[in-house]
Amino acid sequence: MNAKHSTLIGKLSLLVVAMFAFGYALVPLYDVFCEITGINGKTASEPVSAEAAIVDTSREITIEFIARPNQQMPWIFKPEVRRMRVHPGEIHVMNYLAENPTGQAIVGQAVPSVSPGQAALFFHKIECFCFTQQYLAGGNDMLMPLQFYVDPALPSQFSTITLSYTLYDVTSQWQPGQQDDSAKEFGE
């Protein structure tokens, strides 16, 4: 009986380790899957090149912009415009405004989401503040640019795309050597 118990305990221990490893790998695997398929509105986390796409002037797509800081993020964060009409293939630039009303420097990271999720595959960011962490000294504000285009291959069933950003405070993960151009701009 003791040998049977030892074997069973060994198998159950191996099962627990395998379940833990699967659970640990699940989030990165899900993120990769969503980025590839566009499911869950995840957009690419790296810039795309500005291709010489043919502009489809026969269609107009409404792009809605939403911005909100996470509950722990004290910044004021909003788009310059709430809605824009674009032709697929046209390259557009618009800005988001970030203001740090506190007396201390804070580093923010924006996380994008596109709705409907299937449209994320057709919304291409050439330049985006969401690709890097944003350093902002206390009492300052800054414009954060987004350069994008909608792929002309966007299925005709989509007439509105909503781009939403949630801004998180990542100051605790920031290391002084990581300061980018926005930090230098404020003389920090």
Automatic annotation (TrEMBL):
Keyword annotations for this protein, in alphabetical order, are:
Copper, Membrane, Signal-anchor, Transmembrane, Transmembrane helix
Q: Where is this protein found?
A: Cell inner membrane
Which residue windows are transmembrane per the record?
Answer: 12-30
Q: Which InterPro entries match?
A: CtaG/Cox11_dom_sf, Cyt_c_oxidase_assmbl_CtaG
Task: Reply yes or no: does the keyword Cell cycle apply.
Answer: no
Q: How does it sit in the membrane?
A: Single-pass type II membrane protein
Family in the record? Belongs to the COX11/CtaG family.
Q: Provide the function of this protein.
A: Exerts its effect at some terminal stage of cytochrome c oxidase synthesis, probably by being involved in the insertion of the copper B into subunit I.
What this protein is called in its record is Cytochrome c oxidase assembly protein CtaG
Name the species this protein comes from.
Alkalimonas delamerensis
Native organism taxonomy? Bacteria, Pseudomonadati, Pseudomonadota, Gammaproteobacteria, Alkalimonas
